[in-house]
Design a protein that fits this description.
Elements: E1 2-3, E2 9-10, E3 12-16, E4 21-24, E5 33-37, E6 43-50, E7 53-57, E8 63-67, E9 71-72, E10 76-79, E11 87-91, E12 100-105, E13 109-116, E14 119-124, E15 127-132, E16 136-137
Antiparallel strand pairs: 1-2, 3-6, 3-9, 4-5, 6-7, 7-8, 10-13, 10-16, 11-12, 13-14, 14-15
Length: 147
């Protein structure tokens, strides 16, 4: 993993701080808006840095530039965005044999509490449980996320 001009690793996952985030075609306000995110907490991957601008990628692979002030270090993840309509069992403990704590549909956004040994503890307003790390977009394979 390389380090960007900010001193932070590249690439890295962050989340959107605001529910209205303009994504631009280049690193500056002089560049046109390509599209707009309307959901705070959405995980995005920072893949490049230029001054106070961050080139991001979303779970669909779309790329564009946002100002760093619109991003948060809060870790979130999307449950299996590649498996539209499927349901996933979040477990009470990080084990496939553990009781089911919640059932989450694909594309649900969850806070990442921590990840270790291939499992991530995720939390939402009305649930908390453990999912296999490979079912989440917003964390890297085998990445340890401290809680």
């Amino acid at each position: 993993m390389q380090v960007g001009p900010s001193g932070q690793p590249l690439p890295r996952f962050v989340s959107l701080k605001s529910s209205a985030v303009n994504v631009r075609r280049g690193p500056g306000k002089d560049y046109p808006v390509a599209w707009r995110f309307v959901r705070a907490g959405l995980p995005v991957e920072i893949i490049q840095e230029f001054d106070t601008w961050r080139k991001i990628r979303d779970s669909d692979g779309a790329e564009g530039w946002v100002h760093q002030s619109l991003l948060s270090g809060r870790r979130t993840a999307i449950v299996a965005p590649w498996s539209e309509g499927e349901r996933f069992q979040a477990r009470a403990e990080p084990s496939a044999q553990s009781p089911v704590a919640a059932i989450l549909e694909s594309r649900v956004i969850a806070d990442v509490v921590r990840c270790d040994t291939g499992w991530c503890n995720v939390r939402g307003e009305e649930y908390e449980g453990w999912l296999p790390q490979e079912t989440l977009w917003g964390v890297y394979p085998n990445e340890k996320v401290a809680g």
